[in-house]
């Protein structure tokens, strides 16, 4: 038994995104990081390992630069690293079919990932994977513990924290909780360097990804936000109230 | 805005993945833990103990040393650690420099097997703090004339004398102390609690306020015979420690300068005068351009001497040049950055005045700016100008 953690490499939240032609200019992105929601999943997986629940298998699907995700995961405690190499962009279904095959190969029956990726935000990987693999799926969790064949997940519900009990095999998608991904240390970094990465192509995994069903027409920058309005002094109160009531509709 | 360290000549591309990961780990730690708390630490005049614990947990102390629980990183990685710590504050980098280069290094290089096993693993984890006692109230640039004496009393050594300006002194569990035994400089390990040893803190500093600075006082201080460092005699001992620490400072100064440059650039772009950002004025651009030029040269000096430290092809004069130049440029950049910030530059909302005050100490400690010039002067001419003797 072990936990498969799915990691996606995305532009760092601090990176500047620019458009060249009608596409995001990836070459101008200077810093790539593990998607933050995937980091919560990774932290939980490492905690499970520390409580005695088998190895952490870190899996990423992406171009060669995304191997960095795996090294970073190894530096904080991932035991096995799987890189599904894909230099060209894939749609969600294609990614899910590749990740499912890698999870099968790993033998893991517990899968953890972010509830959505910080770049595409589609939120389909976890549920899609669960469908393909025939696993249960619990979304938006912040903590998972496992005893025997049963998992207990915590997530924020409409009226407070929900506790969900579910039988393994299961996919959990993570939301931001209290525990950030731990910082590595020098020992972890030095060991990460020595850890082998299992590199698979779609053929190696026996997957025919077929043609993409999604075509991206163009990328564009979001419209610039309108500048804020400034009101000074008590004389402006009636104007502020009327704007809040009529324009902002908040009162 | 996220911090982007100035790297005009793409030094980043010369680093190994491991070096980059270590640099990023320390950078993140400084961002999370040091920057939000540094002004409080300075105001209270303390080095927060949790920083010691967390630095120990990262495993960066004694970075280039191998074995005995030490990290065994490259000299470049050690430099990058210093750079990132000092981008936070020179006091934090001083803690790590003193622990690694001045306390762990002499034990690692000149200590007995028993001494190495006793102290180094705990020091690498930050569980044991070390300090380095060389400078005395009356002997700074001229340590060879030190007064502190050790006497061999048969079954123990007796130390008498005083050391001053000792980073980490009061919080240290052990001090590597240089004293004259029968007229010859030797290294001794003095432990906290040894009879006749005290380490009162020096107060009232306008610089390195988040770093502990102390006196070490030895009044008939009795230490066991096995506390002498067996493998070194003379000034070679302390000087070889200083070479490592000075090397680290050459990187640390780059970090402080990068921080000041970053703050100046951001401020100049957002500060509007005469209807335009001050960054659009030629005098300000000239200053920013000068800063970039000096930082870039400093980075190349630090990187190259780092490679030479790694392969052993360095000479001490090259380290003198890197320390002297880089601290000098960092101090000038801190002053210029304060200038660009106008009156706002004196506020603790910006890091520049703190870096400036810190760098005044860094310019003086570990060989003053002038002494490094004299070391290089002797190298050029073959004539030493330290003493009046030929």
Q: pLDDT average of chain A, as an integer?
A: 93
According to DSSP, the number of beta strands of chain A is 13
Poorly predicted runs of chain B are: none
Instruction: Write down how many β-strands of chain B occur, each being a DSSP E stretch of 2 or more residues.
Output: 11
> What is the overall shape of chain B?
globular
Strands of the largest sheet of chain A, in order across it?
A: 11-10-9-12-8-1-6-7-13
| H-E string of chain A | EEEEEHEHEHEHEEEEHEH
| Estimated helix fraction of chain B | 40-55%
Major sheet size, sense and barrel closure of chain A: 9 strands, mixed
Distance between the termini of chain A: 54 Å
Task: Based on Cα principal axes, name the global outline of chain A.
Answer: globular
- Quote the CATH topology of the largest domain in chain B: Butyryl-CoA Dehydrogenase, subunit A, domain 3
> How many discrete domains of chain A?
1
What number of structural domains do the residues of chain B give?
3
Oligomer: heterodimer
Annotated CATH architecture of chain A: 3-Layer(aba) Sandwich
